[in-house]
Amino acid sequence: MSSNNQEPDNLESVFKRKRILRTKVRQALKSMDPSLRSEEDDIIQSIVLEAPWFKSSKRLCAYISCRALREVDTTKLLSQILHNPSSALDGSNVPRTTKKLYVPRVEDKNSNMRMFNISRIDDLVANSMNILEPASVDADGNGREDVMHANDPVDLFILPGLAFDRSGRRLGRGGGYYDTFLTKYKELAKEKNWRRPLFVALSYSVQIMDEEVIPVTPNDVLVDALVSPTGVIPITSAALERMKL
């Protein structure tokens, strides 16, 4: 990753390059054939659902896909977690463990985001931008569990993004919400001596860039692995080790 001593002029250059790349990737996503997008959505979700590292995860954070943002669909993933939470064995003898799901809620325009536990899709409501997210309290007025105050660590983060490369670089949408949150969670895991969760991003084929194309700043968090229509791309040593399961 880039040096922590980047000068302001260099940072502005990085931000400019990011803006240009975002425009390019958004256009590529807009031009993507709807039938191809649907096909890749199904393939990517099937890969995740059949992956031993997904089946064995007990606590997950996952984004709620937004069609308007042209994000890889997560509908089947969320449905599988919420509708089939009980333990069972499949043909691969990998236990389908009871899963706990946390999903994001944007708190303000200052890159602050929280992750709340939900137990059903009906726990989600549309915000002012028509993006589904959890209310901070349930239907009975009780506060939802915040992942930053949970007693147990998260095993897996399923992440969105605009562009990725095979070295783990991730280009977000410019708000800094995920980079800020993931940095805080990494600090919490270190403080509590928890094993750091895997950061796994879902990517359409057009979103995977050549290495070094995505500019980075010291605040950008790398992902451990990508899931694309061609399969899983483990990147870090943690991913290589845990994806052997």
TrEMBL record:
InterPro entries on file: FTHF_cligase (IPR002698), FTHF_cligase-like_sf (IPR024185), NagB/RpiA_transferase-like (IPR037171)
Signal peptide bounds: none
Cofactor annotation: Mg(2+)
Gene3D superfamilies for this protein: NagB/RpiA/CoA transferase-like
Stored Pfam families: 5-FTHF_cyc-lig
Leading EC class: ligase
Keyword S-adenosyl-L-methionine: no
Catalytic activity: (6S)-5-formyl-5,6,7,8-tetrahydrofolate + ATP = (6R)-5,10-methenyltetrahydrofolate + ADP + phosphate
Residue numbers binding ATP: K18, R19, I20, L21, R22, R170, L171, G172, R173, G174, G175, G176, Y177, Y178
EC number(s) given by UniProt: 6.3.3.2
Annotated Gene Ontology cellular component terms: mitochondrion
Record family assignment: Belongs to the 5-formyltetrahydrofolate cyclo-ligase family.
Protein name: 5-formyltetrahydrofolate cyclo-ligase
The organism's taxonomic lineage, starting at the top: Eukaryota, Viridiplantae, Streptophyta, Embryophyta, Tracheophyta
